[in-house]
């Protein structure tokens, strides 16, 4: 954890010092079940040696250079897959079959707050889904300075027996509820092996659309936004895109970030053995997306550690906001932060300890800069100190400064009007929300 926190600090400090951050861009993703169960357990109807196939897949990952790759069933041939891939950021394996989840990510983007979650419900009705701790992973990827997307990788329960469909619906709902808790207000992408189809209503694959406001890139780009009602299975390899597989890609933007899927394709013909045979029993999916930061709301980078409860003021900020009162509390560490907007909207996060201080801003005065300092307490990284500076040069501070600090400055003509991060009795992690002055 100490190494992860150090890497996060270095990455955040680098981003914070970037002179001219990008405000728009594009990236590509790939979802692929790599059929990495031991051959003795499941051949996946894929010819050839699985270790060799894994190495070939990794070579293609490097060649095509997708920006974010989620793999499933990455079990016993993981080392061969990674040996031939050169993405700079990759998750560590959680183990082979019966030990790990088989879920990994390979990326051109760094990330913070990575976690693995096991399914609360599984079924062996038509297979051995309970043999290994399948589930989903979460990471908050750093696309650019102040540009974050919450990425979820999942592998749901397989099979079509009633027990399988009950478990699978529970799996998808578990992810949807996690998004509601840990990705409130954020841009989100969910992709992987859902083992679900729109024509199987008991799967409840529409839960991401209904519960989380996510868009299926396949439905959007290949079905004119209408969920399929007739099952059209894909061949493997698939040479058309209008058929449906159980591997899916969902996404949404936020008030601070616009996301739009522009391209969808089954990459089957790019992932073949030298003799033309497939490398997996699943068609890999790629989606290209464009992004742009908000014109009315944006966010800063994060400082502190991924502990406590997630909060985000983004969806509660009114039109044309302006900070009127800043309110902090601190002592040995930073206990709480808060502010009141000119229209009376109030935000408060953290605990009740520390000494309270406040600053009332003038009618033409804006909160434009914040310094945060972090440190270790009970083996966890959290914020120890905050120093706010206004456009008039007034300051307000709370907590105790450390040697590990970063300064977040609103873009020219913008101001700080809210917070996002994680809290408990104190301020664990913190970022700021910007709006035009």
From TrEMBL:
Jacalin-type lectin domain ranges (all copies): 308-436
The keyword Signal is assigned to this record: yes
UniProt GO molecular function: endonuclease activity; phosphatase activity; sphingomyelin phosphodiesterase activity
Lineage: Eukaryota, Fungi, Dikarya, Ascomycota, Pezizomycotina
GO cellular component, one term: cytoplasm
Name this polypeptide is given: Putative endonuclease family protein
Stretch forming the signal peptide: 1-21
Keywords for this protein: Endonuclease, Hydrolase, Nuclease, Signal
Pfam families: Exo_endo_phos2 (PF22669), Jacalin (PF01419)
Biological-process GO terms, alphabetical: phosphatidylinositol dephosphorylation
InterPro entries per the UniProt record, alphabetical: Endo/exonu/phosph_ase_sf, IPPc, Jacalin-like_lectin_dom, Jacalin-like_lectin_dom_sf, Sph/SMPD2-like
Keyword rRNA-binding: no
Species of origin: Coleophoma cylindrospora
